[in-house]
Amino acid sequence: DPARPEAWRVKAQVLARRGDDAQAEAAFGEVLARDAADDTALAGRGRLRWLRGDDDGAAADLREWATRKPASGEAHLLLARVLWNSEGLSSLERAKTLLGRSSEFEVAQGWIAALGAEDLDRAAKAFAAAGDADENCAEAEEGLAYVALTRARRASGIGATAAAAPAVLPARVATGVAPAAAPPGAAESAATVMPLPGSSRTQELWTEAVRRCMRAIELAPDRPGPYVWRAAARAALGLLAEAAADARRGDELARRSPGLGGEFLKRAERAYAALLKEEGRELAEEDLSKALDKVEHLARLAARHAPWDARARAMLGRRLHLFGDLSCAKR
Question: How many CB atoms are closer than 10 A to CB 191?
């Protein structure tokens, strides 16, 4: 009976298990249209919105879910992973009180520390704790690989923002589906890194990044990211043949599941191109700010779903000052 919310809920859950996220999200919406108090549908739609990159929609659903179920540690944990601000940290603390220090909690804390606060030491401790709680936690090893790569880049003078930062949720814990991958061709960019001169300490950091990536690959061999990160580290060590092989493997895996990264990147590039066309006329401060916000938002979604794509990271750098020189940006 299509009028019954239970029928739509079952349909949504079946679609989600099949990986048809768009249809599953729509089906959860049908449930809520018939029964706004259905917490299962609210939580399910929130998860799917978040995996799609709709952080605002996901936060609205998950915030409502956490309000309705204040004793649900899972609700607060998911909300924390969507929000990187003080509210997210507050939700994370609430989840810790309710759930204890599980590997899932530690992984969430690690990404918030690494990407929200750029506190690599705190992030490393959280990821290590997740690994201690579950020695086969692939997300923990991915986090440690990211920390190692970022430390090596910083020591080499490349800068923190150059590191290919993965999404806050590198794995789809709720559905068991692999994360979205980079668009075809993105992985080759990692192999173009030239060997970098540096101290023995710098070389040790690159070597540690390779080791961490190898462990992440051992636990999750079908994820493109660690291959591309290892390609960058090996290239920096002068191991260009090995780096090229890693980059090809990462690109091969990415081609199997292109995900949303490529689509968001195209939209960001179109929005930026439209903004450059306005160079010849005066733009009101408010209009310029809105246009730049749109470019940045799309670029962040691209970087989240295709974190190893250098083009997505470069597009993030296009966020100009409110009165920035668009002609300089064009160059």
Answer: 22
- Provide the pLDDT confidence category of residue 38 given band limits of 50, 70 and 90: very high
The phi and psi torsions of 12 (rounded to 5 degrees) equal: -60, -45
Q: Number of C-alpha atoms within 13 angstroms, CB side, residue 135?
A: 0
Residue 67's SS3 state is helix
Place of tokens 């989600």: 16
Distance CA 75, CA 247 (A): 37
Amino acid at 205: L
As given in the structure block, the two tokens for residue 161 are 């923002």
112 DSSP assignment: I
What CA–CA distance (Å, rounded) separates 167 from 46? 17
Block residue for tokens 């597009």: 315
Q: What is the DSSP letter of 280?
A: G
The tokens of 31 are what? 């449930």
Distance separating alpha carbons of residues 230 and 183, to the nearest angstrom: 18
How much is the pLDDT for 204? 92
Quickly list DSSP for 123-144: HHHHHHHHHHH-TT-HHHHHHH
CA atoms within 13 A on the CB side of 216: 29
Cα–Cα distance measured from residue 272 to residue 267, given in angstroms and rounded to the nearest whole number: 9
The number of angstroms, rounded, from the C-alpha of 90 to the middle of its chain's C-alpha atoms is: 21
Q: Which residues contact 198 (CB under 8 A, 6 or more apart)?
A: 155, 156
The alpha carbons of the chain give a radius of gyration, in whole angstroms, of 21
Looking at the DSSP bridge assignments, the partners of residue 177 are: 172
Beta-ladder partners of 154: none
Summarize pLDDT for 82-94 with one digit per residue, the tens. 776 667 777 877 8
Instruction: Give me the residues paired with residue 172 across strands.
Output: 177
Can you spell out the DSSP letters for 236-275? HTT-HHHHHHHHHHHHHHHHH--TTHHHHHHHHHHHHHHH
- Distance CA(331)–CA(326), nearest Å, equals 9
Question: What pTM was estimated for this model as a whole?
Answer: 0.59
Q: Which residue has the tokens 């609210």?
A: 42
